Amino acid sequence: MPRSSLITGISGQDGSYLTELLFSKGYEVHGLVQYGRRELCDPRVKLHYADLTDSSALLPILERAQPDEVYHLGAQSHVRLSFDLPVHTVDVTGLGTLRMLEAVRQYQRISGRLVKFYQASSSEMFGKVAETPQNEQTPFHPRSPYACAKLFAHWQTINYREAYGMFACSGILFNHESPRRGINFVTRKITLAAARIKLGLQDKLSLGNLDAVRDWGFAGDYVEAMWRMLQHDTPDDYVVATGQTHTVREFLDEVFSHLDLDWREHVEIDPNLFRPAEVDILCGDASKARRVLGWQPKVGFQELARMMVDADLHATPDELSLLEAPRVGDWG
């Protein structure tokens, strides 16, 4: 029988790439989605409709899916929005993880099956960084409701591993992007706007802090690290990153110059798009993942930026007209 997997948040960027990877390895893939949300879902996925705020729905889904591996990607993942919706963010991103862990624990007890659990932790947990680059031992200092919720989820995952002997891993993923990135995130907001400007569909782009420094990788590479964590003999936590940093300004340079445009003629700074508490620099040290898991990123910064803007440029004019870049800015 093929191995079975359950992915929460399967309708998002990471869920779609992970689905492709698991199908390529012969898995049966189940997905947990909110009602009506199937944006990037492969039609081969067996969907289960539920919400991470509803603990009563999770155990029955596990009993139907009978997963060998659970990839918990579901969250309210928009950092800037978390300042406006802090309670909702904590309920979904923080408590939602605890509900999922407890459901897996109960399912293992009832079924007698071993279930390997992956938690999508975030570099945002480092926040006001104590050192650069950041590794698995770097102290956390979260600077947003989202980051605080992720930190709660991260420590609950460790607690369930230590208290109950669960095979539970956390991937501390740094920023990872792709043409499938949501249009509310700053990289996709930039590539989409640049394509629309090139095609004459808009003229201006509003952004916040252009000096924020991030470690950007390709989502397709990062989901392989998730999978490798659950194939290892022992559960552990891993930073997943490229180790290279660039500013938002540099991302603008790469994208607009690829289209023979000057971003300075089109970008406007909007103070409302700055975070109440900024995270100035995130840079990951993924040497543990390289050494233990044999993982390394394949797609570089320039290739990633060009891949994203080319995908938006070659979307149909009707699609680009519908996908108007929103005003909300974020670092994902």
- Tally of separate helices: 11
Shape: globular
Q: Given this structure, which CATH class of the largest domain is correct?
A: Alpha Beta
**What are the secondary-structure elements, in order, as H or E?**
EHEEHEHHEHEEHEEEHEEHEHHH
Oligomeric status of the shown chains?
single chain
| Number of separate structural domains | 2
Strand content: 15-25%
- CATH homology group of the largest domain: NAD(P)-binding Rossmann-like Domain
Helix content range of the residues, please? 40-55%
Could you give a short account of the major beta sheet? 7 strands, parallel
Query: Could you list the spans in which at least 5 consecutive residues all have pLDDT below 50?
Result: 327-332
* DSSP E strands, number: 13
The value of Rg in angstroms is 19 Å
Integer average pLDDT? 93
Task: Please state the structural category.
Answer: alpha/beta
Q: Say what the CATH topology of the largest domain is.
A: Rossmann fold
**Order of strands side by side in the largest beta sheet?**
3-2-1-4-5-6-11
Can you walk me through this structure?
Strands 3-2-1-4-5-6-11 form a seven-stranded parallel β-sheet, sandwiched between helices. Strands 7-10 form a two-stranded parallel sheet. Helix 2 (58-65) crosses helix 4, helix 4 packs parallel to helix 5 (145-164) and helix 6 packs parallel to helix 8. By secondary structure, the protein is of the alpha/beta class. The chain folds into two domains: 4-176 and 216-240, NAD(P)-binding Rossmann-like Domain (Rossmann fold, 3-Layer(aba) Sandwich), CATH 3.40.50; 183-215 and 245-282 and 299-322, UDP-galactose 4-epimerase, domain 1. It has helices spanning 13-24, 58-65, 79-84, 86-111, 145-164, 186-198, 219-231, 248-258, 287-293, 301-313, 317-322, and strands spanning 4-8, 28-33, 46-49, 69-72, 116-122, 167-173, 176-177, 205-207, 213-214, 217-218, 237-240, 246-247, 267-269. Helix 5 (145-164) links the parallel strand 5 (116-122) and strand 6 (167-173).
